[in-house]
Amino acid sequence: MKIMYEAIKLGSCSKMNQVTDLRSAVKMFFTPQGREFCLVHNFPDLKTFRSYKGLDKFSIFVDEHDIEAENKDIALIHSHGDLFFTEGYHVVILMHGATATIHKGQYAAVTVEGEGATWLEI
């Protein structure tokens, strides 16, 4: 996969060699190390995200501005979402100007990577 070779050029860890398809790339993207790498390197760029169709089935939304989601890990890329978390631990990734309004209840823990989150307690 081209994206794997680009990440390796930027100095990604050796786990990137395990990426063989889009599913494994997405799995890597949601790991703590993957999130950190992508945010530090602004990787992949917006054009690359736009070139992949069907990312929404992996909870990655590109150029969407009315996303509503509840209790799931999610990545917003140049998008906006109203995200509701009532229980469990979840990760939100915001890249390329993405914003989110996060509604969090007392039984939920949410980690937000990137900028652009507004927090509301529910």
Please write out the topology:
Blueprint: H1 2-9, H2 22-29, H3 32-41, H4 46-51, E1 60-62, E2 67-70, E3 74-77, E4 80-95, E5 99-113, E6 117-121
Q: What does the model show?
A:
There is one protein chain. This protein has one domain (2-121). Strands 1, 2, 3, 4, 5 and 6 form a six-stranded parallel sheet that branches. It has helices spanning 2-9, 22-29, 32-41, 46-51, and strands spanning 60-62, 67-70, 74-77, 80-95, 99-113, 117-121. 27% of the residues are buried. The mean pLDDT is 90. It is α/β, with parallel strands linked by helices and 122 residues long.
Task: Give me some keywords for this one.
122 residues; six-stranded parallel sheet; 39% strand
Termini separation comes to 42 Å
Main sheet specs? 6 strands, parallel
- Summarize the amount of helix as a percent range: 25-40%
Spatial shape: globular
Q: What is the radius of gyration?
A: 14 Å
Q: Can you give the mean pLDDT?
A: 90
Question: What's the number of helices?
Answer: 4
